Amino acid sequence: MTTFLGMPATAPRGVGHLRGDQPFPRAAHDALGDSQLRRNLRHATTTIRGKSGRVIAELPDWQRLRDAGSAIKADVMSRLPDLLAELESRVTEAGGVVHWAADANEANRIVTDLVRRAGSERVIKVKSMATQEIGLNEALEDAGITPVETDLAELIVQLGDDKPSHILVPAIHRNRSEIREIFLRAMPGVDPELTDDPPVLAAAARRYLRETFLSTSVAVSGANFAIAETGTLGVVESEGNGRMCLTLPDTLITVMGIEKVLPTWRDLEVFLQLLPRASTGERMNPYTTMWTGVTPGDGPQNVHLVLLDNGRSAVLADTVGRQALHCIRCSACLNVCPVYERTGGHAYGSVYPGPIGAVLSPQLTGIEDNASLPYASSLCGACFDACPVKIDIPSMLVHLRDKAPHPPAERAAMAAAAYTMSRPRLYAYAQRAAKMARIAGRRGRGLPPPLSGWTAGRDLPEFPEQTFRDWWAQR
Amino acid sequence: MRIAFFATCLADTLFPEAAKATVRLLERLGHEVVFPFDQTCCGQMHVNTGYQTEALPLIRRYAQTFDRYEVIVAPSGSCAGSIRHQHAMVASSHGDAGLAARSASVAARTYELSELLVDVLKIEDVGAYYPHRVTYHPTCHSLRMIRVGDKPLRLLRQVRGLDLVELPAAEQCCGFGGTFALKNAETSTAMLADKMTNIVSTGADVCTAGDSSCLMHIGGGLSRLRTGVRTVHLAEILASTEST
Asked: pTM for the whole thing?
């Protein structure tokens, strides 16, 4: 006999960063008018697109690698519970401790308790989307613990009391003069003569971070991958701050979304080729750190893994939507997205911006809480082509739109249009009626909402004298 | 060859010149064109706006209307894309396996105009004459959904008198996206502004594409700004001859 336990829960409200304050179109309004932001975004996304495109073109088997990545992820999702149980066994055997967190609140509580037990009032963090998602920094601060972000861009965001706007380059919306101002204002012990020369800015961050690395005994990380067969966790990064966080402290706490597990060590050969080329446009990422439980006398002696659900089981339950869990957080879809390039990440309201955010965030929270996101796309398909694991984002957007709550007036208009178009004679009559209405009304400007958005920036076409079908009938 | 013509609701209603041009072109090339009067709309607007249930009768209508024809052509990459990539999917996700199979079969016989000419009719020089400076915008669905590739450009390169100029950042979306242009009008306009800048930079007097919808969007912007550049459907260029 089986017992129905109910549908899996979505991510809880009131904690974390998966929901914006306002719908996408309103949030985008401010970003579109910010000329500095527009310039920064255009420059950054164009540069990354170029770099990534060049190194991808070097690989003759790129499309086959994408197929392999997609197939491995589909396999993982089809047997996720078994793989997670295997991972737990291997991590435990290697001296690590595995914690299961159903949602953001549970994960925050687990991590806070672990830091308290370690007796530290400060933690160093290597960039992690999962801890951003659950609002771990706020939870730690509430408990009197100071989290220090050690990824340069995350540090800029943290010191600027700001929110990340890109998965991989979280401070993409800032330029160097803004970064100089943030450092002068908020970085402890900063040189007041600081210039906006990038090497000078990097050196200031390095000096501050080195002191912090050497004097903090607890680190919190995310994970890019976890290998079920060996219990190995992995982080890939570019600055070496991750390597410091993962090796220097006595206690290492990793918060990882349950979808990150891979079956075998060998699977890394696919993802370590796909990820750097798709994300930073590098052939190989500068630092790859792998650790398996505890190695006595070497590295962290207390190793914890927090497996985070926070809505992921609910995503997995949707056979179309679950592809969103295949994401390896490379952000290639952001860099090619014409919408993201113009609005930036903050308009999406979630830590997961861009096309992948538009399909992931509404599923993690439940569609009601992010109903505008599946519409934040022209369905141009550039994201699908760029995705290293071939996530069909446009089809998922269409799927989620079908589940989204619809405005009553729009629903009525769509039903009327479908009714008319299902009846060719009525349809032909409506075509002529529309033409008459156009002749009676003003031409090209000042239509009422929701059509006003069109006429604000574009003329309407003139109605022709004759429809095609009338022309055909008279031939 | 006997070719069934799916005019698309947009060309039928608002852009009949594109539809008429498709007919004239195919007839000039010696083919028989039939226009089944029962056709209306492929349902793409409904599917893409989140109304699959409402789209279902339109998907059924398309399959019923065109199932009896061997070759069907639409002057739109986007409508052909919806028919080929969405019809069967929507039917099957609504539990209608019979319709899904029928839709898949009709979809396999549905071509966008440049595909029909190059792949089916095996012709690149259609004998057209069009003495203008023209730039070509590859629409997103023709490019990334049905992958027409450079077929439209191969057709345009054979047109007598035509000065074809390359559009910078051609593969970026113009910002139309159906109801996206209404729901996210400001972001759409920002995308359109860049597309127009690129079009104007070519010095072309005509911007062409294989979709009336994208051309309506681009043309609406170019007209509002009084750029003097006009939009013309690919079919109209290919249908033009020295005597017309």
From this structure: 0.95
